[in-house]
Design brief:
Blueprint: H1 5-8, E1 10-14, H2 20-33, H3 45-51, E2 57-62, E3 65-74, E4 84-91, H4 100-114, E5 119-125, H5 129-137, E6 141-151, E7 157-166
Parallel strand pairs: 4-5
Antiparallel strand pairs: 1-2, 2-3, 3-4, 5-7, 6-7
């Protein structure tokens, strides 16, 4: 049995503060995989809010249920890099493989261009092949490998695949 289109369609909208409860659960699930981030715990909302650009925070939903989130954080506070931001995309495990991540990243890319962001970058833990593949399929390229850049939750030194995407008007 397949779901009617209206029940399986992915909708993306701007994140609201009242989405934080579910967004933090999705983030926690990503942290627990040990493959999504070097973070060890979900920060309080105030710290999270101060980290991400307000104009580039999105959530995805299927049949009204939030399935993932995406946001941009500034790559630097230096004025010269005001148009460079880091992508963050998280999807609930039970919704992975359904196009949620792609829909979020494509929407985030469009929103970044409307917000005068000219370069998107990301650092993905080596071994997170699904995330690397997602970014490659959305126009990112591998810039290099940052070797033994940070320690994970277990204290192991990890490599990070560094990727970027230039805005269409830049290339």
């Amino acid at each position: 049995m397949s779901l009617p289109d209206s029940e399986s369609r992915i909708v993306v909208r701007f994140m609201r503060e009242d989405d934080w409860k579910i967004v933090s659960k999705i983030y926690r699930e990503g942290i627990e995989t040990g493959m999504a981030t070097f973070e060890r715990s979900v920060p309080p909302y105030g710290r999270w809010d101060a980290t991400y650009l307000k104009k580039c925070r999105l959530v995805s939903a299927i049949a009204g249920v939030v399935t993932g989130w995406a946001a941009l954080s500034p790559a630097s506070l230096n004025w010269a890099y005001r148009g460079v931001a880091e992508t963050n995309v998280y999807v609930f495990a039970k919704y992975r493989g359904r196009g949620v991540g792609r829909t979020l990243l494509e929407s985030l890319t469009k929103q970044s261009e409307l917000s005068d962001i000219w370069t998107l970058q990301c650092g993905i833990l080596e071994g997170n092949d699904a995330c690397v593949g997602l970014h490659l399929s959305c126009g990112f390229r591998v810039v290099g490998i940052r070797e033994l850049i940070a320690q994970d939750q277990d204290g192991a030194w990890r490599n990070v695949v560094f990727m970027e995407r230039r805005s269409g008007w830049m290339v």
